[in-house]
Every structure is written in structure tokens, then in C-alpha cells.
Amino acid sequence: MKSNEQLAFIFGLIGNIVSVMVFLAPIPTFYKIYKNKSSEGFQSTPYVVGLLSAMLLLFYGVLKTNAALIISINVIGCVIEITYLIFYFVYASKKDKITAMIQILVLNVAAFGLVVAITFLLVGEDKRVSTVGWICAVFGVAVFAAPLLIMASLR
Q: Mean per-residue pLDDT for 38-61?
């Protein structure tokens, strides 16, 4: 059993390293935004959805036992996504700032709050981890689908 735990930890560590690389992948985009002093042509959606995903996975990690790797990578993810959004706000037009703020309020405040409320009010304690896990899986897919919205809008 000990070797299974060690193997799980090693793969978890590898997963965290890959996750950090995924979180850092938008750096070239933000370099372009900085260089052009404008976020024109870029949307906040991938970063808002990425933040929601990291928040949900952080919540999942808190509910789950022995989830230090899940908690640590998603704290890092939240910090990185918030940094991206702050950077986006610095260079966004007023219209884009309003759109991003609405997305943040709807997804990161209301939707996350709703998930937490439903989890504690309607889901039994024995089902919370699996319920939040399924929700995380759906939003995990959304994180990778969100950039496709940008491609569709550029057509």
C-alpha cells in the first residue's frame, strides 16, 4: 500500500508541474497586451473561467481529505488567474472592463457561491466530494473550451 501512495504522490507532483505550465501559458498573450498597451482583440473569458475552475478545485480540495497537492496547485492557479485579470483590467477599454466585471460577478461570485450553498444545503455530507468533483470536471472542460470562443469571435 505504501508504494501506491508514493506513486500517487509522484503522479500528483507531475500533474502540479504540468498545471503550473498550463497556468503560465498565457504569458505571451499578456506580453502582447503590455507591449500594445491595449487588451483589444483579447477577451477576459478564458481567465474568468480559469479562475472559477481553480476556485472550484480549491473548494474540492478543502472538502477532500489528504488533498494538499490539489489545494496547493489551485491556490497558485487562483493567484495567477487573478493576476491575469488585474493585468487585463489595466489595459482594457471601459466596455471590456464592464464585460469582464459582469463575467466575474456572475461566474466567480454568484455561480461559485451557488455551488458552495447547494453543496452544504442540499447535498449530504457523504456525497459532497463526488458532487463537487463532477462539477469541477465540467468546469475543467470549460477552461479548455473557453479559448475556442476567442477563435469563433475572430472569424
A: 92
Instruction: Say how many domains are in the chain.
Output: 1
Q: Mean of the pLDDT values across residues 7-22?
A: 92
pTM for the full predicted model: 0.86
Q: Are 74 and 140 in contact (CB under 8 A)?
A: no
- Gap between the Cα atoms of 119 and 5, Å rounded: 29
DSSP 10-37: HHHHHHHHHHHHHHHTTHHHHHHHHHHT
Q: Beta-carbon neighbour count of residue 7 at 10 Å?
A: 10
Secondary structure letter of residue 126 according to DSSP: G
Of 8-12, 39-43, 105-109, least confident by mean pLDDT is 39-43
Residue 1 DSSP label:
-
By CB atoms closer than 10 A (0-12, 13-18, 19+), residue 58 is buried
Residues 124, 131: Cα–Cα separation, whole Å: 10
Contact between residue 78 and residue 58 where contact means Cβ atoms under 8 Å apart: yes
Q: Which domain holds residue 66?
A: 2-154
CA distance 155 to 151: 7
